[in-house]
Amino acid sequence: MQDKVLELSNVNAYYKDGKVRKQILNDISFTLYEGEIVGLVGESGSGKTTLCKCILGLLKDYEGNIMHYTNRPQMVFQDPFSSLNPRKTIGWILEEPLKIQGKRSKEERRKKAEEMLELVHLPKEFYSRYPRELSGGQRQRVSIALALITGTKFVLADEPLSALDVTVQAQIIQLLKELQEKERISYLFVSHDLDVVDMICDRVLYLKDGVVREIC
Ligand SMILES: Nc1ncnc2c1ncn2[C@@H]1O[C@H](COP(=O)(O)OP(=O)(O)OP(=O)(O)O)[C@@H](O)[C@H]1O
């Protein structure tokens, strides 16, 4: 039996719309296991972001139970052009979460950042480069390295391929799958694109009008 990473039980979530408390998610239950890629699809407005906010602890108005069995998830965002600080080098960006943790020396942080570059198949020399000097696919590799650098095993990926062209998408899919296998990373993979989800996900959750059902 695989280890659980995340378990949602009977989650209802709400937003305030003026004075009215509007229900957005309705009785959502599912489990994500270690080393598994679960797709979350649904039309615009179906509640995907709301569900992610609940999982990340950003939306407090919910009922039900959300259990994390590992560290909190790290996000990989849609747009690698705006998610990395343009004024800082890749090395600085990668080391920032380690600085916040405060556990490693300067040399150890650099070594870890270079290891992470290697893990996502970027040259060590990228340590001194700025995001503007990288392609979209390379930046998305940095975003993935950044999500994983503190040792998290659960990534919440919000449309991580939609800003990339098809060839680069295929390369990033290959990387995500490689990390799934090698590092036992679990992903909740939010997407509009059923073809992409079909290619990468072990299971797919379909969200419609705040209700989730598994479609394969
Ligand atoms: N802050 C908010 N206050 C009130 N209602 C909200 C708020 N954010 C989202 N909603 C409503 O909640 C519903 C679900 O929105 P959500 O952003 O979760 O959908 P989504 O599936 O992520 O859409 P998209 O694919 O377009 O990002 C929508 O009807 C939206 O209008």
From TrEMBL:
It comes from the Bacteria. Keywords: ATP-binding, Nucleotide-binding, Transport. The lineage of its organism: Bacteria, Bacillati, Bacillota, Clostridia, Eubacteriales. Residues 6-215 form the ABC transporter domain. This is ABC transporter ATP-binding protein. Gene3D superfamilies: P-loop containing nucleotide triphosphate hydrolases (3.40.50.300). GO terms for molecular function: ATP binding. PROSITE patterns: ABC_TRANSPORTER_1, ABC_TRANSPORTER_2. PANTHER family: ABC TRANSPORTER, ATP-BINDING PROTEIN, TRANSPORT ATP-BINDING PROTEIN. It comes from Ruminococcus hominis.
